[in-house]
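seq as requested:
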Amino acid sequence: MISTTAHQRHIFIAIIGFALCCTNQIIAFTPPHRGDCRFFLDTGDTSEWDALLPLGLFHGVTTNPTLLERANQPCTVPNLHQLASKALSYTEEFMCQTWGSTVEEMYENGMAISKKDRERIVIKVPVTAKGAEAATLLATSGVRVCLTACYDSKQALIAASVGVEYIAPYLGRMTDNGKDGFDQCKRMKKIVDGLGSDTRILVASIRDANTIAELAMEGLDTYTFSPAVARELFDEPLTDTAAEEFEEAAARGMEVDSKAAATV
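struct tokens:
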């Protein structure tokens, strides 16, 4: 006989399962063997979220006012709350950028945006003097912060000293402006490690999948990249051919089994 407690537990699990099926919601899940790796999908296009986040690659989603504009998404606190709800139904983190012409405005907008879920919403702040001051106020208020628009390795000193969780160097854009973006990212990693800081180097402005692989071999483990780069990770014709051959062999195996069953 099932105990009353066990019976109640079974009923509770059944209700939860039924509710999830009815609402078609997805529970964010972090694979146990992912290690320190964190991949973020860098887009404000929610149709791309629906297409790519179920693949299980991504720890979170990143946006900024420019990406929101490209996706025809309003850069407002209420809309960011809606986007956060959707992103967090798939992943563990949602990063979005505060704005304002003063430290106070950046702080107030950051507080308003993050209020919906302080544990899983990360506020991005440009790594300027005003941005650093706003970041300090936000971090003191319990908000998770990413300093963004980083174009030089020395800016890692700011992130580590302020004590923010992330700093986002724009690798591709640094290279476009005559710097060695790859080397700058490696230097930033050495800086935060040398200072004993836990700040993550969130490499952004990545143009191809091989760049991620090369940086990973240098010990960097946190990246945000576009849907195009995400799809490039799966672009290997030899793998596609092998998968097709497996399916064909499986189909032949089922046909043999059907013929054998028919002769019994």
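Residues 237-262 form the longest helix (26 residues).
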